[in-house]
Design brief:
The complex is a heterodimer of chains A (371) and B (502). Chain A has 371 residues and is mostly helical. Chain A has 15 helices and 4 strands. Chain A has helices at residues 2-23, 26-33, 46-56, 69-72, 121-130, 139-147, 150-160, 166-178, 186-191, 200-210, 239-242, 244-256, 272-275, 307-315, 335-345, and strands at 109-110, 116-117, 229-230, 284-285. In chain A, α3 crosses α8 (166-178), α10 (200-210) crosses α15 (335-345) and α14 (307-315) packs across α15. Chain B is 37% helix and 1% strand. Chain B contains 18 helices and 2 strands. Chain B has helices at residues 8-22, 29-48, 73-86, 88-102, 173-183, 196-199, 246-255, 264-272, 275-285, 292-306, 313-318, 327-337, 366-369, 371-383, 388-392, 401-404, 436-444, 464-475, and strands at 356-357, 413-414. In chain B, strands 1-2 form a two-stranded antiparallel ribbon. In chain B, α1 runs antiparallel to α2 and α5 runs antiparallel to α9. Classes of the chains: A mainly alpha (371), B mainly alpha (502). Chains A and B meet through α6 and α12 of A and α8, α13 and α14 of B.
C-alpha cells in the first residue's frame, strides 16, 4: 500500500519535473504544489484557547507536578526545546527530537513514527499526559488537582459547562494547540501574488526546491509535507544507545509498543515500530517545513544542527541506509544553490508566535465535605 | 512524638533526604551516585553515634501530678498536629521540650499512689462465659468495663510464631540482599525521587514519622505510613487491609499514583541497564533479565527476613523470664487483658486480631488545612468507586468502606499490631495522636464520637497510676531498634552488545 503510494508520488514528481522543463517556469510549477496555509475548520472560542494556554504551562498535569507541555514545547523556541533529543519526564530521557507545535494540528499523523492519527488531537494530548516518558500522570489525579484550584473550577464551568473532566482538559489543550498557527509567512504572501515577499535568492531557492533539488517530491502542499514516511538514512544519534537513561526509555517504549527485539536494537526503527513491517524499518514521517528556520536541530533524532547541514545531507544523496525506498540521489548543488535553498527555507516562518507564560493559579482550600 | 533522639548530623541527613526527595530530581546517574555515597556516609556516621531510644519518664511517686503527661486527648491534639505539619524532626524536638518541663514536678495525689492495679491480676478471677477467639467486633462484649480478666477469651499474647513464608517466594540470602538494595533505590519510582525508604525510614520506626505520609512528589498522602517491622506475620496490610501479602503491598506502593508512581516496564528496563542488578536477579530468580514480579518478591523477602523484632521484654517475659517485665508492666499487662480491654482487639502474638473496627478516631485537621490532602482524599474516594454523593461530601478516610461499600464498614480500620510501637509514633490511621499517652487517654474516654463506633469502646475509668502501668506495658512490646544503613547502589551502565546492528 505504502509502496504503491510512493510509486504514485514518484510518478507525480516526474510529471512535475517534466512539466517544469517543458514550460520553463519553475515558479509556476511550484505554485501548483505549494499552497498557502488555510484556515482551520475548527472554530474554538478564545475562552477555551485561554484555558488551554494556562493548562499548557501547568506542571500539575504531570505525575510529580514538575513537567508541563511547555517544558519541551517552549514558546520562546518556536514550541520546541531546541535540543537534539527531548528531555522527557524526570528520571527518563527521550530518544527523539521535539517537533514544533506551530501548525501541528493540521498534520495527518503525530509523532515521528506516526503512531497517532492527526484526526485526534485530544488523544495526542492524553498520550503526553499519561506516558511514562512524558508526564506520567494519572488522569483522575490531574482532575482532582484542578478541582482544588478555583480558577480551573470556575473557568471550566464557564467555558465547558461543568467541572474539570479529562475530556474537557484534553479539549482545552487541543484548542490551544490548534490556535498555534503561522501568520504573515513570506511564502504564503508570495503564493498569494505578492512577488516581492521572497528575496531573489529565495525565489532561486524555490525554483531549486521544486526542481533540481527535488524537495517538493515529499515536501508539498500547505504544510510542505506529503504526510508520508520515508527512509533517508539519517545517521543514528549515538546518545540514544550510549546514554543509559535514553536507552532505557527507548527500550521501554519499543517494548510497550510491541517490538520484540527491543533489547538488541541499535537504531531507531521508526514506522516499523508501528506497522511491524520490515519494509518500514527506519522510515519517519516527512516533517512540515513551516517554521523550519526556528526549529533546529533537525531530523527525528536531532543529528543535523543547521539547515545548511540538512541541505548538505540531501546534496550528498542522503545517508547510507540499505534499500532506500526514497530515491535520494546526489543533487549536485553548488554552494550558491545550496545557500539559495537555505534562503528559501528561511521564508517559511511567520511572525513569531508570542505566548507568554501565564501566572499559574494556586491551590486553595475548599470547605471539607463540599466538593 | 518520637522517642528516638536525633543528633545534628542525623537531622542534617534527614533534611538532605527530604530536600532531595521533594526538590530537584536526579537527572543524571552521577548525581545519583554521589547522593547515595553521601547518604551512606552520613548513615554510617549516624549509626556509629548510637542514637538511643529514650523512654518517657514516669513521674516519681513523691512528686505531684502537675507535670503529668496524661491529659484529655483532645487537649493534646493540637500539639501533635502542629508537629505533624512540620515533620518528624520537629516532633522529635517537641518531645525533648516536654521532657524538660517534666522536671519541675511536685508530688502526685495520694490516691494515685495506691497499688490498686494489683486487683487486676486476673488469673485469680472467675472465668467468664467463653467466647470464640474470633469474636466479631460488632458483638457487644459485656465485660469490657468489668474488673475481670479477658485473657481467656482471646488469643493469648505470645512470642512470635514461625515466620510464615509463601511457597512461591522462599527466602534466600541473595534475594534478601537484592531486596534490600531495591528497597533503598529511588529508580523504582516514576521520577526517581522516591524509594520505599522515603516513607519507611529505619530512623523513625520504618514509618516516616509524619502524621500523614508525604507521598509522591506533587502529592500529599492521606494516611499514616506504617512500620514494616514484623509485617511478615500479617495477613492484612495497609490501614484497611487492602493488601494481603508483602508482595502485593510492594506492588501497590511502587505503582500507586500517590506513592511511587512507577511504571512496571520502565522499572524493568532501568534495572536491565544496571549490570549488578542483572546479575543479582539472575542469581536470585534465574532468567536473563530483571522482572517486575521479581522486584516485588525480592523486596517482600527482604522485609520478611530482615525486618523482624522478637527480643522485646514482653517476648522474654512470655518465654518464661519473669524478670523481663517490671512490676509496673506486669500490672499494665493485667490491665491490658482486663480492665482496659485492649486484648479484645490487640491479641495473639502480633497483638492484633486483624479485624476492622471503627474507633471514631478524631479527624486529622490537616484535611482542612492542606489543599493537597484534600486532593488525595477526593482522589481516593473517586478511584475506589464510592457513590458520587460520598465523593462530593468527602470529609474523611472511609476505611474498610472503600473496599466493601457497606455503610456499616464506614470508618473501620484494621487493628494495628502493637509490636515495635515505641518507635512508630505518631499513631492511628491518620497519625492524629502524637504519643502513646494520647492513645491511652483516647481509649480511657471511650474513644471518639461516631454513629458507627465499635461497641467495644467504653470509658475505662483508669486511674493515672493505671495509665502509667499500661504505658509501661505497651513499651515492653518493643525490642531492640532495627537500624539499617542504606546499601551502596550500583549505577546505570552502557549496555554493550554486538547483536542485531543494521
Amino acid at each position: 500500500m505504502r509502496q504503491s503510494m510512493i510509486q504514485v508520488a514518484r510518478c507525480f514528481f516526474t510529471f512535475c519535473l517534466l512539466a517544469s522543463f517543458a514550460l520553463g517556469d519553475a515558479a509556476w510549477v511550484s505554485s501548483q504544489e505549494l499552497t498557502p496555509l488555510t484556515q482551520s475548520s475548527v472554530d474554538d472560542s478564545s475562552d477555551l484557547i485561554d484555558l488551554g494556554r494556562t493548562l499548557f504551562f501547568d506542571g500539575r498535569l504531570s505525575g510529580d507536578a514538575t513537567t508541563s507541555c511547555a517544558t519541551c514545547h517552549d514558546p520562546s523556541k518556536a514550541f520546541t526545546d531546541g535540543l537534539p533529543l527531548s528531555k522527557g519526564y524526570p528520571g527518563t530521557e527521550y530518544f527523539r527530537n521535539t517537533p514544533t507545535l506551530i501548525n501541528a494540528a493540521k498534520q495527518s499523523h503525530f509523532y515521528w513514527d506516526g503512531r497517532m492519527s492527526g484526526d485526534d488531537l485530544p488523544s495526542l494530548v492524553r498520550d503526553h499526559i499519561a506516558e511514562a516518558h512524558f508526564m506520567q500522570a494519572d488522569g483522575r489525579l490531574v482532575i482532582e488537582r484542578l478541582r482544588q484550584i478555583p480558577y480551573y473550577e470556575t473557568t471550566f464551568k464557564k467555558v465547558s459547562g461543568g467541572e474539570p473532566s479529562y475530556g474537557k482538559i484534553l479539549n482545552a489543550l487541543a484548542a490551544f494547540v490548534r490556535s498555534l498557527k503561522s501568520t504573515n509567512v513570506p511564502l504564503d504572501q508570495y503564493l498569494n501574488g505578492q512577488k516581492d515577499a521572497l528575496s531573489k535568492s529565495a525565489i532561486r531557492g524555490l525554483t531549486l526546491f521544486s526542481g533540481k533539488a527535488n524537495c517538493i517530491q515529499c515536501h508539498h502542499g500547505e504544510l510542505l509535507t506529503d504526510g508520508e514516511f520515508h527512509r533517508l538514512g539519517v545517521p543514528s544519534n549515538a546518545a540514544v544507545f550510549n546514554d543509559p537513561m535514553r536507552h532505557i526509555t527507548f527500550r521501554r517504549f519499543m517494548r510497550t509498543i510491541g517490538v520484540g527485539e527491543c533489547a538488541t536494537l541499535r537504531h531507531d526503527i521508526g514506522l516499523r515500530c508501528v506497522t511491524k513491517q520490515e519494509s518500514d524499518d527506519g522510515k519517519f514521517r516527512t516533517p512540515s517545513l513551516r517554521e523550519v528556520a526556528n526549529t533546529a536541530p533537525y531530523m527525528h533524532d536531532g543529528t543535523l544542527e543547521t539547515l545548511e547541514e540538512v541541505i548538505a545531507f540531501y546534496n550528498q544523496g542522503g545517508g547510507t541506509a540499505v534499500d532506500l525506498t526514497t530515491p535520494l540521489k546526489p543533487l549536485g548543488l553548488n554552494k550558491a544553490e545550496q545557500s539559495d535553498l537555505v534562503e528559501f527555507l528561511k521564508h517559511l516562518s511567520g511572525d513569531s508566535v508570542e505566548i507568554s507564560a501565564p501566572e499559574l493559579p494556586t491551590y486553595e482550600l475548599r470547605p471539607l465535605g463540599q466538593f | 512524638m518520637n522517642y528516638a533522639r536525633w543528633d545534628s548530623s542525623e537531622q542534617g541527613l534527614l533534611a538532605m533526604v527530604s530536600q532531595t526527595s521533594h526538590g530537584e530530581h536526579q537527572h543524571d546517574c552521577l548525581g545519583f551516585r554521589s547522593f547515595v555515597a553521601q547518604l551512606s556516609e552520613l548513615m554510617a556516621s549516624v549509626s556509629r553515634q548510637s542514637i538511643h531510644y529514650v523512654k518517657p519518664k514516669r513521674p516519681n511517686h513523691m512528686r505531684a501530678a502537675s507535670h503529668y503527661r496524661f491529659g484529655k486527648w483532645s487537649d493534646n491534639l493540637h500539639k501533635s498536629l502542629s508537629c505533624g505539619l512540620v515533620g518528624c524532626l520537629l516532633i522529635a524536638a517537641g518531645c525533648g521540650n516536654r521532657e524538660v518541663v517534666d522536671e519541675n514536678a511536685d508530688s502526685r495525689p495520694v490516691e494515685h499512689q495506691s497499688g490498686d492495679a494489683s486487683v487486676f491480676h486476673s488469673d485469680t478471677q472467675p472465668g467468664l462465659p467463653k467466647q470464640p477467639a474470633t469474636l466479631d467486633e460488632t458483638e457487644t462484649n459485656p465485660v469490657t468495663a468489668d474488673l475481670v480478666s479477658l485473657a481467656g477469651e482471646y488469643l493469648p499474647l505470645a512470642v512470635l510464631p514461625k515466620l510464615p513464608v509463601p511457597d512461591d517466594n522462599p527466602i534466600t540470602d541473595v534475594k534478601v540482599k537484592l531486596g534490600k538494595m531495591l528497597f533503598f533505590d529511588d529508580r523504582l519510582s516514576g521520577d526517581v525521587g522516591t524509594s520505599c525508604f522515603s516513607c519507611h525510614d529505619p530512623r523513625v520506626g520504618w514509618g516516616d514519622g509524619n502524621a500523614l505520609s508525604r507521598g509522591y512528589a506533587g502529592t500529599q498522602h492521606w494516611r499514616n505510613s506504617q512500620t514494616l517491622v514484623n509485617t511478615a506475620y500479617l495477613a492484612k496490610l495497609f490501614w484497611a487491609g487492602e493488601s494481603t501479602s508483602l508482595e502485593s503491598q510492594a506492588d501497590s506502593a511502587i505503582t500507586g499514583n500517590l506513592a511511587g508512581n512507577g511504571d512496571k516496564v520502565m522499572i524493568e528496563e532501568r534495572l536491565a541497564q544496571i549490570p549488578e542488578y542483572v546479575e543479582l536477579f539472575h542469581e536470585a530468580f534465574g532468567g536473563t533479565r530483571p522482572l517486575y514480579d521479581h522486584v516485588t518478591k525480592a523486596i517482600a523477602t527482604f522485609e520478611r527476613a530482615a525486618l523482624n523484632s522478637d527480643d522485646s521484654p514482653l517476648d522474654r517475659y512470655l518465654a518464661g523470664d519473669d524478670s523481663a517485665l517490671t512490676e509496673e508492666a506486669v500490672r499494665g499487662k493485667a490491665l491490658f487483658e482486663g480492665k482496659a480491654g485492649c486484648i479484645q482487639c490487640h491479641n495473639g502474638a502480633l497483638l492484633t486480631d486483624e479485624k476492622m473496627h471503627n474507633l471514631a478516631v478524631p479527624e486529622n485537621p490537616l484535611f482542612t488545612k492542606d489543599p493537597l490532602r484534600q486532593v488525595s482524599l477526593r482522589y481516593q474516594h473517586f478511584i475506589r468507586g464510592v457513590p458520587e454523593e460520598k465523593y462530593r461530601t468527602a470529609d474523611r478516610d472511609l476505611g474498610l468502606y472503600y473496599t466493601t461499600k457497606r455503610e456499616s464498614d464506614l470508618g473501620k480500620f484494621r487493628t494495628p499490631p502493637l509490636r515495635y510501637i515505641s518507635y512508630t509514633a505518631p499513631y492511628m490511621h491518620n497519625g492524629v495522636f502524637e504519643t502513646l499517652e494520647d492513645v491511652i487517654e483516647f481509649y480511657d474516654t471511650g474513644g471518639g464520637e461516631d454513629e458507627n463506633k465499635s461497641d467495644l469502646l467504653k470509658p475505662l475509668n483508669l486511674t493515672e497510676d493505671e495509665k502509667w502501668d499500661l504505658l509501661e506495658f505497651l513499651e515492653s512490646m518493643s525490642g531492640t531498634e532495627v537500624r539499617m544503613v542504606p546499601p551502596e547502589l550500583p549505577d546505570y551502565e552502557v549496555i554493550q552488545t554486538t547483536a542485531a546492528t543494521h
